[in-house]
Structures are given as structure tokens and as C-alpha cells.
């Protein structure tokens, strides 16, 4: 297996807990460097393209604009010229927002979201679909919010639950987030690597988790008396806009951004039936995902025994 990375030290950090870091050939370079992408793909049979700048921090807008669509053009285009099959493109449910109906499906048209990250994923999705329409063996997946143990970056999804448990207060509003277990998402991508099946699309949204449902799960797992505070959706979006403003003038990072709140308050369920039927991947209960995530955070110092309550005992 070969990976294209900017920092080779991150290979051990990300893959060491899984016990596969030693089996990886690391090519050091940037995904927006065309010759480096060609070098990384040379001699490969298939490719998984998951490289993108994922952040809702408005201070990194220039990085998102310069990377996400260009990386998709280079990786998918180079893979096609080299005859790789399959060419797995990791998109996002964000690429299909705002939802056209009460359920998101893998064949929904790319949307025109207001947030820059989601917009970059929608534009990258259009690149992938144009190649699919032209006969390229591009296989697209649409992950939701990825939770689970061994997150090498402890990104926004982990930070949200950590902040909730540390404060003991959880705002609840309309909508929700489609939560997929990282281990199930890995199984989806592994199952996509079958040569000769052509262009396909698979939803990997897992289960839509509303904030009241998340409160219920966290209370059950921890035994803590967490406080839920109802907040109207417009207020949540306004809080997100204020968070964006604060981050532009102060050196802090806040997960409750305007883009995140727009996505959350407009969340709808995902139709994963094709993924289950064709790939044979069943998504585990979200309670298991949350429990394993909290257990891992407790073991690695992200949360204390007090934060996780009876789960730690």
C-alpha cells in the first residue's frame, strides 16, 4: 500500500494504532502537485482519494479553495490516464446539501451550499460525476460525520462531544448529524475495491443523530445528569456566525461555526440501502460508536473518569 503525505511522521501517528504503519510506502509530496501525484500513482492498480482540507475555520478558507477541487481533478484525472480501477473518490454528505427532500440519497444532485467547505466538496463532486458520465470507473462514497476510536487528529466531531461532556451542557435544536463509525466507513471503502464494476455511488451516512438523541445516549452511557438547553435553529446559526467573527480576530478554534450550524439544523437521514445491499456493510448502532469513542478518549487523556462517569468504571 502506498500513501501520498506531506509529513511522513503522520503515517505512524495515524496508522500505528492500527498496526499497519510498517506496511505503508510513503511518498512525500502535496496532492496539488501534478508530478508528485503521478509519481504516487505509478504502478498502482487502484486509488482511494480522500485528500482534502477539512475544516470549518474561516481563517483557512484560502487553503480550502486552493486544495479540494484541484486535488480531485489531479488525482482522478491522473488515475484515469494511468488506467487505475477502481478510482474511489471520498466525497461527503456535505456535497449534496442543502437536501432536496426529506432523505439524502447517493444519486441526489450536488447542491449549492453556502459554506465554503461544503461548496468545495460539491464542486469536487461535479468533477467526479463528469468523469463517471464519461465512462471512468470512479466509485464515490458520501460519509457523514465520522466518529470512532483512534482519530489521529481529534477533529471537530470529537471536539464537540468533548466540549459537551466537559461543560455538562448541551444545546438542543432541530435537525441532526448523520453519524458513521470510522470502522464501518473503512469497511465500505475496502468493499469498493473491486475491479471492473464501473462507476458507482454509495451513501455512508450511518444514522441521523438528533441532539436530543445524543443527550439521551450520553446520559445513558455516563450516568451523568447532563443539562440540555433548547435553542432555536436561527439562534444556533447566529451563534455560529458570531463564532466565525471571533475566530477571525482571535487565535482560537471553535467548533460551533456558522457552516456547522447550518449543516446541523438542516440535517436529514441518509439512504444507505445500496451500500448495505451491494457492499454487504451493515452500520453498527450509534450507541456502540459513541461508547467506543468515549472509552478511547478516556484511555488517551482526552476525557477524565469524571467526564465519562460510569462508562469509565
Written account of the structure:
By secondary structure, this protein is of the alpha/beta class. The protein has one domain (31-312): 3-Layer(aba) Sandwich (Rossmann fold). The protein has 12 helices and 11 strands. The strands form 4 sheets. It has a 4-stranded parallel β-sheet, sandwiched between helices. It has a 3-stranded mixed β-sheet with strand order 6-8-10. Helix 3 packs parallel to helix 4. The radius of gyration is 19 Å and the shape is globular.
What's the layout of helices and strands?
Layout: E1 2-5, H1 9-15, E2 25-28, H2 34-41, E3 47-49, H3 61-81, E4 87-90, H4 116-133, E5 138-143, E6 145-147, H5 156-167, E7 169-172, E8 177-181, H6 182-192, E9 200-204, E10 207-209, H7 211-222, E11 227-230, H8 233-249, H9 258-265, H10 273-279, H11 286-299, H12 305-308
Parallel strand pairs: 1-2, 3-4, 4-5, 5-9, 6-8, 7-11
Antiparallel strand pairs: 8-10
What's the CATH first level? Alpha Beta
- pLDDT average, as an integer? 92
The CATH superfamily title: NAD(P)-binding Rossmann-like Domain
Oligomeric state as shown: single chain
Helix content: 40-55%
- Which descriptor suits the 3D outline? globular
Helix-strand category: alpha/beta
Sheet with the most strands?
4 strands, parallel
CATH topology label:
Rossmann fold
Span between termini: 39 Å
N-to-C order of helices and strands: EHEHEHEHEEHEEHEEHEHHHHH
Amino acid at each position: 500500500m502506498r500513501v501520498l503525505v506531506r509529513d511522513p511522521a503522520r503515517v505512524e501517528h495515524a496508522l500505528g494504532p492500527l498496526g499497519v504503519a510498517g506496511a505503508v510506502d510513503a511518498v512525500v509530496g502535496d496532492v496539488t502537485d501534478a508530478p508528485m501525484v503521478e509519481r504516487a500513482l505509478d504502478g498502482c492498480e487502484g486509488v482511494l482519494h480522500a485528500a482534502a482540507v477539512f475544516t470549518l475555520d474561516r481563517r483557512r478558507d484560502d487553503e480550502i479553495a486552493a486544495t479540494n477541487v484541484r486535488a480531485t481533478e489531479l488525482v482522478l484525472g491522473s488515475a484515469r490516464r494511468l488506467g487505475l480501477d477502481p478510482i474511489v473518490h471520498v466525497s461527503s454528505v456535505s456535497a449534496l446539501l442543502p437536501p432536496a427532500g426529506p432523505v439524502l440519497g447517493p444519486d441526489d444532485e450536488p447542491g449549492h451550499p453556502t459554506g465554503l467547505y461544503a461548496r468545495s466538496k460539491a464542486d469536487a463532486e461535479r468533477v467526479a460525476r463528469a468523469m463517471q458520465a464519461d465512462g471512468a470507473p470512479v466509485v464515490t462514497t458520501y460519509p457523514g460525520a465520522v466518529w470512532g476510536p483512534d482519530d489521529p487528529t481529534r477533529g471537530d466531531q470529537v471536539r464537540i462531544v468533548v466540549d459537551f461532556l466537559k461543560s455538562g451542557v448541551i444545546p438542543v435544536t432541530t435537525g441532526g448529524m448523520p453519524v458513521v463509525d470510522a470502522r464501518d466507513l473503512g469497511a465500505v471503502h475496502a468493499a469498493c475495491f473491486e475491479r471492473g464494476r464501473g462507476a458507482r455511488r454509495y451513501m455512508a451516512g450511518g444514522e441521523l443523530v438528533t441532539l436530543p438523541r445524543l443527550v439521551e445516549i450520553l446520559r445513558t452511557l455516563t450516568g451523568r445528569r447532563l443539562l440540555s438547553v433548547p435553542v432555536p435553529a436561527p439562534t444556533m446559526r447566529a451563534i455560529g456566525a458570531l463564532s466565525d467573527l471571533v475566530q477571525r480576530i482571535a487565535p482560537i478554534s471553535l467548533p460551533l461555526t456558522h457552516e456547522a450550524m447550518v449543516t446541523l439544523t438542516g440535517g436529514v437521514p441518509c439512504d444507505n440501502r445500496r451500500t448495505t445491499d451491494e457492499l454487504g456493510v451493515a452500520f453498527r448502532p450509534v450507541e456502540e460508536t459513541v461508547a467506543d469513542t468515549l472509552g478511547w478518549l478516556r484511555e488517551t487523556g482526552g476525557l477524565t473518569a469524571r467526564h465519562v462517569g460510569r462508562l469509565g468504571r
